[in-house]
Amino acid sequence: MNYYSGEFEKRGFDIMFKFLEMGSQKPNIPTYKKAIQDLIIMMTQKTSGGRKFKKDINWEENFDMTIITIVCESIALYLNGNLEKIENINKGEVEK
User: Fold this and answer.
1) C-alpha distances in Å from residue 62, one per residue of 1, 41, 56, 82
2) Domain segments of the chain as ranges
3) Per residue in 1-51, pLDDT tens?
4) In this structure, are residues 57 and 41 in contact, taking their beta carbons and an 8 Å threshold?
5) SS3 category, 51
């Protein structure tokens, strides 16, 4: 299966981005962290999700949604201004 085959069409991304641009979307940090943790597991598991081990994550069922979640939450962080706050904290500037 080609994970970049266009299952989630450009139109879907356009609609999703319009909702994010409206400004009502706030980043969901627990969801963001979970998606990143899942991606790390998928990228490092020895079986590529092909065999059924307890901690393995099936690529075919989860990869697309994991990537979309990371992208959406990253955009929400950026549009919300929280990414800039994190950047300032990393530079040593504390915003009050």
Assistant:
1) 13, 11, 11, 27
2) 27-91
3) 444 555 555 666 677 777 777 766 788 999 999 999 999 988 888 765 556
4) yes
5) coil
> Looking at the chain, how many residues does it have?
96
Listed residue (84, 85, 80, 73) closest to 30, CA to CA: 73
- How many CB atoms lie under 10 A from the CB of residue 63? 18
State pLDDT tens for residues 53-88. Answer: 667 787 878 888 899 899 889 988 888 888 888 888
Among 88, 85, 35, residue whose Cα is nearest residue 62: 35
